[in-house]
Amino acid sequence: MSGDDPTTLRGEELVFSYPTGDGPVVDGESITAEAGAVTALVGPNGSGKSTLLEGLADQLPSDSGSVLLDGRAVQSYDEKELARTMGLLSQESTAPDSISVEELVFHGRYPHRGFFEGTTTEDERAVDRAIELAGCGQIRDREVGSLSGGQRQLAWIAMVLAQDTDVLLLDEPTTFLDLHHQLEVIEIVETLREESDVTVVVVLHDIEQAARLADKVVALDDGVVRARGQPDAVVTEELLAEVFQVDATVESTPRGPRIEPLRARHAGDETADRGHSGGERDRLDEPATHTGGD
Amino acid sequence: MGAETSSNPPGWRERLSGRVDGSLLALCVGSLAVVVGGGLVQVSFGAFSMTVAEAWRAVFDPNVLFDIDAWEAFLLGGTVPEMDERSLIVWNIRLPRVFVAGFVGTNLAVSGAIFQAVTRNELASPFVLGVSSGAGLSVLLTLVVFSGLTTFLPVVASVGGAAAFLLVYAIAWQNGTSPVRLVLAGVIVGTVFSSLQTALFFFADDIAVVQSAIAWTTGSLTGTDWEQVRMALPWTVVTTSLALVGARQLNVLLLGEQTASSLGMSVERVRFALSGVAVLAAAASIAVAGIVGFVGLIVPHVVRNVVGSDYRKLVVGCVFAGPALMVAADVGARLALSPVQIPVGIVTGLIGGPYFLYLMRRQEQVGEI
User: Fold this and answer.
1) Which conformational region is residue B83 in: left (phi greater than 0), alpha (psi within -120 to 50 degrees), or beta?
2) For residue B213, how many C-alpha atoms fall within 13 Å in the half-sphere facing its CB?
3) Which of A47, B94, B190, B368 is the most exposed place for a label (fewest CB within 10 A)?
4) Would you say the ipTM is above 0.85?
């Protein structure tokens, strides 16, 4: 969108932890979002992928390591300057019910406006562009409170797009959406990948989606990067078994890898056969018979 | 809403201003009518009774209205020039009370509106961050312990309120604040301070001191005159202007901390600055009228129901609707049990309770903005 050269986002040796947690959530990981490409972060719940994304967005102070945007540490950016370069769609998005989609999208122009400045024609153009790209033209004048979850997500995406940034970070943009709106979101990101220089980092729950959408996939588990690279190379049966604890078959298709999940793996599966895991189940039953006697 | 069916949809600017003209304008005109009507009742009735026509004549007495000396005396202090008895009573006793009610209403409504955005809670009031308990405690301390400071009571009350707010902020701060932590800290400080305040009542040896303390802690406009106008007017102008300027920041703050921050707002700084404006407004109203409850809670709520939660409109609506409620409530406080005047805070409480009952019955979700 803006800027001539696509922008690279790099995180180096990043360590993040929450004040209430015991250990670091992300422990010394480096990640590069290639300029103009889509990088997908995947991993099971609690693997630290959202934390890493928030950290890259400079929304979470790092214990150590650095985030470089266009070769410059993000901390050296002025707050609004950073917001003009890098946008974040967070999961925690709440808006008052009574504002219209258009008003919400106009908030995306916040970093482009001075304290006393009104909106300019440039702002209006950016808002129009964002609304069109996000496919929100139909709901432009609707109140946010009257929208379905999927429509609301599109409105939020339009707001982030109106920010007109070189880098876009999306935190689980498709989670909780129906199939139609998931595809809408996916198509927006595909459009960004094909028609613009925007560098996208997206956290996704759905590995298939990630593989289809991304130029590069990074798989996280327990705050550690377990694999990274081309979708075909990363999304494998071994990775699904190790990182996601599922037995699945992965089939290579022209539209990317197709995953057929078979069963969830349980602790001890790696070394044990089925008979053994049956024995384990017996052991688990024991306390139940004890308490039953009370 | 249904008017937008023309084949050629107007640009967003027209649509936006069209909406402003509609509900907000109606609200402002309606509020002005209430203020004027309430004001008329206030200047007409009382111990010295006159007819409505006489009262109007006194209000528009050209000898006062166009007398620079008189305005100088009203707004800058000094001796009021000679005028006839009716004009004197209307201009020197009854009208200033209406003006003070208006300023208090504006300040409390704007203050409440800001705090509701800062805490992202529709049930927040100007006093949610400890301002009222700080002011109340310092009033009691002054009246009971440091009675030498009684002449400075308005200042002491405001300073006490502001100090309590800073204490709340200090308690809530832990690598930054959050709406929930701020509200909890407000409850902590409020609980302790109100206990101390109640304890101090036991040491008041004089019924007059107790009555004075009650008037301060429930809010009263009895005996207000131009001195209170002079005290409240500049602060009202300052805080209202700052609130109007900060309206867009408040709108962005409503999107949640993380979104606001990723849009490039320094959330902590903006939140503290806006809270400061709200405390200033609350302190200004406390200085002239004591702690008037419910106005700062209800008015933003009513306005939001009419104009929506866009703070550019909400603040403007509060500037008009706040005085309307306050002036109307003061009519009740001054005239309902005449000749006895009751604290206006009692009347606002009597209006506020049923209003929330009505809301609770009508709306499923009360609380979230």
Assistant:
1) beta
2) 26
3) B368
4) no
Residue B76 pLDDT exceeds 80: yes
Q: What is the pLDDT of residue B369?
A: 58
- Cβ atoms of B189 and B164 within 8 Å: the answer is yes
Nearest to A174 by CA among A133, A222, A210, A216: A210
Give the gap in angstroms from C-alpha A57 to the nearest C-alpha of chain B.
8
Phi, psi of B338 (to 5 degrees): -50, 135
B288: tokens are 């002239």
Name the residue with tokens 């409240």: B232
Between B107 and B211, the higher pLDDT residue: B107
**Does A90 contact chain B (CB < 8 Å)?**
yes
Lowest average pLDDT, out of A192-206, B211-225, B316-330, goes to B211-225
- A255-278 mean pLDDT: 68
**pLDDT score at A284:** 38
Residue A104, pLDDT above cutoff 70 = yes
Subunit contact B264:A82, Cβ cutoff 8 A: yes
B contact residues 149-188, partner A, Cβ 8 Å cutoff: 175
Predicted local confidence at residue A2, as pLDDT: 44
Q: Kindly report the backbone phi and psi dihedral angles of residue B241, in degrees, each rounded to the nearest multiple of 5, phi listed first.
A: -60, -45
What's the residue count for chain B?
369
User: Residues A202, A170: contact at Cβ < 8 Å?
Assistant: yes
pLDDT at A292 (0 to 100): 36
Nearest to B112, CA basis, from B329, B260, B301, B241: B301
User: What would the mean pLDDT of B362-366 be, rounded to a whole number?
Assistant: 67
Q: Chains A and B: how many Cβ contacts under 8 Å?
A: 70
The two tokens of residue A2 are: 């803006």
Residues A62-96, buried b or exposed e (16+ Cβ, 10 A)?
beebebebbeeebeebebbebbbbbbbbbeebebb
Q: Cα Rg for chain A, rounded, in angstroms?
A: 22
Beta strands in chain A (DSSP E): 9-16, 26-33, 38-42, 64-69, 72-73, 86-89, 167-171, 199-203, 216-221, 224-229, 246-253, 256-264
Show the tokens assigned to B269: 């700084």
**Three-state SS for B301?**
helix
The secondary structure element, H or E, covering residue B41 is: helix B25-44
Residue B307: closest CA among chain A residues belongs to which residue?
A: A98
Give the pLDDT confidence of B165-211 residue by residue, as tens digits. 999 999 999 888 888 898 899 999 999 998 998 898 888 888 888 88
Query: B245 pLDDT exceeds 60?
Result: yes
The CA distance from A56 to A44, in Å, is 19
Angle (CA) B331-B332-B335 rounded to 5° is 75
- The predicted model gives B139-149 an average pLDDT of 86
Query: Any CB–CB contact under 8 A between B22 and chain A?
Result: no
Taking chain A, what is the end-to-end CA distance rounded to the nearest angstrom?
A: 69
* Beta bridge mates, B265: none
